[in-house]
C-alpha cells in the first residue's frame, strides 16, 4: 500500500510539473477549463467472492443491460492535454438473475481523484475526425466504502486503491459531449468479499471491478471552446505574425514571368513565356536585337518553311504576336498591366512607331472568377487603359481597335496557372 501511495504521489508530481510547463507556453483564457461529468453504466466485480457467489457467469464480460453504477464528477484542465478530476459514485453489487450464484446485495460508494490526459491530441484526432472525436485517459487514487450483510448483519469496510481507464468522446456542440468510459478499479486492502461475507483467506486481498459507462459532459466557461476541443495550431488568418511571415515567403517565391526564376533572383523578370533563360532569368539574345533567339528560330521555321530566311526584327515580332507569344498580363482584379508585361508593351510601341501603317487590335480577357457582367467591365477597362498607354506614346487613336471579350473560354479551369494565363490582353497586328 505504501509503495502504491508513493508511486501515485510521484506520478501526480510529474504530471503537475508537465502541465505547468505547457500552461506557461499557452495564452491564458483562450478556452474553457471546467466541465461537469455524469455517467451511468454497468459494473462487474471480478474478485473476491465467497464460494457459491458471483455477480454473473464467468464467461460474461459485462452484465448488460443492467445499469448498476452511477457517478458525477468535476474536471479541470490545466492545458489542452493535462487535467485533473474529482468524482463520486455508487455501485449496486448483486447476483445476476438466472445465474447459479446465491442471492446477495451489496453497495459500494466511491470517491476518486484522477489525472486526465488528452491522448487524442497526440494521435491527431482533431484533424482526421474534423474535431468531433476525442480520447481521454485517466489514472488516480480512489477511496471506497463497501456495505454488505454477513449472517444477516450489516457490515461495512473502507478500502483504497487505484482507478484507471479510457474515455472516447463525441462532441455534440461547444457545450455538450457524450462519452463511453472503460474503467478498472483495484482495491489493495479489502477483507470483505463483494457478496458481503468476510474472506476466509488470511491477509489483505485485492479487489477488482470493471466498468462500462455512458457519459454526458457539460462544459462550463465564457469562452467558445473547451480545452478538449481547442486547437493549439493557430491559423495564419488569426495570428498576424504568422500571416506576415507567410506573406513574406509568398513574395520571395513570386515568379512574375513564369520562367522558373523567382523575382528576387530574376535580373529580367519580364521574359516572354516559354523561352529558355539563364540562371539569372535572362533570355538568350546573341544578335542583341531585343527578341529571344529561341522565338526568332520558331518564327523563321514558321515562315513558309524557309529556315534560311533572314528575318528582320519587325517580321519576327509580328510572327510572335500572331502566334500568341506576346500578351499583356494582369494581376487579380487589376486593370493595369503587371510588371512582367512591361517589356512586351515596349515591343508593341516600338513596332507601331517603326511601321506607321500597321494597326493593332487589343482584346481583353478575364479569368473565370466572379460574375460575367463584372468580368466584362474589367476586360473593357483593361483594353481602354492599354489603349491610353499607346496613345500617350504617340500612337494614333485611329490605329487602335479595342474589344472586351470577358471570360476566357480557353482557360476555364480554376488552377492557378490557368487563372493567370486568362487575365490578359491579346495583341493582333494588321
Report on this model:
This protein has 430 residues and is α+β, with helices and mostly antiparallel strands. It is 25% helix and 33% strand. It has 9 helices and 12 strands. It has helices at 2-25, 119-122, 125-128, 240-252, 293-302, 313-322, 342-354, 372-392, 416-422, and strands spanning 34-47, 69-77, 82-94, 105-118, 133-150, 153-171, 176-190, 205-220, 327-329, 360-366, 400-407, 424-429. Strands 1-2-3-4-5-6-7-8 form an 8-stranded antiparallel barrel. Strands 9-12-10-11 form a 4-stranded mixed beta sheet. The longest helix has 24 residues, at 2-25. The chain starts with a helix and ends with a strand.
List keywords for this structure.
25% helix; rod-shaped; 430 residues; alpha+beta; 9 helices; eight-stranded antiparallel barrel
Distance between the termini: 99 Å
> Radius of gyration from the CA trace?
39 Å
> What structural category arises from helix and sheet content?
alpha+beta
Q: Can you tell me the residue ranges where pLDDT is under 50 for at least 5 consecutive residues?
A: 19-27, 302-311
Fraction of residues in β-strands: 25-35%
Question: What order do the strands of the largest sheet run in, or round the barrel if closed?
Answer: 1-2-3-4-5-6-7-8
Total helices: the number is 9
- Average pLDDT number: 80
What composes the largest sheet? Answer: 8 strands, antiparallel, barrel
Question: Care to count the β-strands?
Answer: 12
How much helix is in the residues? 10-25%
What overall form do the CA principal axes indicate? rod-shaped
Q: What is the chain-wise order of helices and strands?
A: HEEEEHHEEEEHHHEHEHEHE
Amino acid at each position: 500500500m505504501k509503495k502504491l501511495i508513493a508511486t501515485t504521489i510521484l506520478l501526480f508530481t510529474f504530471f503537475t510539473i508537465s502541465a505547468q510547463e505547457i500552461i506557461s507556453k499557452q495564452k491564458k483564457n483562450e478556452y474553457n477549463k471546467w466541465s461537469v461529468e455524469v455517467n451511468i453504466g454497468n459494473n462487474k466485480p471480478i474478485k473476491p467472492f465467497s464460494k457459491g457467489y458471483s455477480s454473473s457467469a464467468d464467461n460474461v464480460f459485462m452484465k448488460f443491460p443492467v445499469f448498476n453504477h452511477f457517478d458525477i464528477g468535476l474536471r479541470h484542465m490545466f492545458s489542452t492535454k493535462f487535467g485533473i478530476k474529482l468524482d463520486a459514485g455508487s455501485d449496486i453489487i448483486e447476483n445476476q438473475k438466472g445465474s447459479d450464484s446465491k442471492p446477495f446485495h451489496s453497495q459500494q460508494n466511491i470517491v476518486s481523484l484522477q489525472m486526465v490526459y488528452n491522448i487524442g491530441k497526440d494521435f491527431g484526432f482533431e484533424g482526421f475526425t474534423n474535431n468531433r472525436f476525442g480520447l481521454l485517459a485517466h489514472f488516480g487514487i480512489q477511496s471506497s466504502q463497501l456495505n454488505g450483510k454477513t449472517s444477516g448483519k450489516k457490515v461495512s469496510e473502507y478500502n483504497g486503491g487505484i482507478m484507471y481507464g479510457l474515455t472516447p468522446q463525441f462532441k455534440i456542440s461547444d457545450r455538450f459531449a457524450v462519452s463511453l468510459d472503460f474503467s478498472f478499479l483495484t482495491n489493495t486492502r479489502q477483507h470483505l468479499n463483494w457478496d458481503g461475507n468476510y474472506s476466509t483467506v488470511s491477509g489483505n486481498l485485492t479487489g477488482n471491478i470493471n466498468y462500462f459507462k455512458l457519459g454526458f459532459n457539460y462544459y462550463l466557461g465564457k469562452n467558445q471552446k473547451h480545452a478538449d476541443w481547442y486547437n493549439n495550431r493557430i491559423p495564419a488568418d488569426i495570428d498576424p505574425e504568422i500571416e506576415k511571415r507567410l506573406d513574406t515567403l509568398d513574395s520571395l517565391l513570386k515568379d512574375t514571368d513564369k520562367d522558373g526564376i523567382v523575382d528576387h533572383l530574376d535580373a529580367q523578370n519580364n521574359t516572354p513565356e516559354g523561352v529558355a533563360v539563364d540562371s539569372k532569368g535572362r533570355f538568350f539574345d546573341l544578335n542583341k536585337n531585343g527578341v529571344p533567339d529561341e522565338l526568332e528560330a520558331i518564327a523563321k521555321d514558321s515562315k513558309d518553311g524557309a529556315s534560311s530566311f533572314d528575318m528582320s526584327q519587325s517580321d519576327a515580332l509580328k510572327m510572335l504576336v500572331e502566334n500568341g507569344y506576346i500578351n499583356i498580363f494582369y494581376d487579380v482584379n487589376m486593370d493595369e498591366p503587371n510588371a512582367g508585361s512591361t517589356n512586351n508593351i515596349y515591343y508593341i510601341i516600338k513596332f507601331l512607331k517603326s511601321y506607321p501603317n500597321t494597326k493593332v487590335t487589343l482584346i481583353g480577357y478575364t479569368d473565370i472568377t466572379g460574375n460575367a457582367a463584372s468580368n466584362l467591365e474589367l476586360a473593357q477597362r483593361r483594353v481602354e487603359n492599354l489603349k491610353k498607354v499607346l496613345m500617350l506614346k504617340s500612337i494614333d487613336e485611329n490605329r487602335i481597335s479595342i474589344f472586351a471579350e470577358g471570360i476566357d473560354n480557353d482557360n476555364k479551369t480554376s488552377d492557378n496557372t490557368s487563372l493567370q494565363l486568362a487575365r490578359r490582353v491579346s495583341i493582333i497586328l494588321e
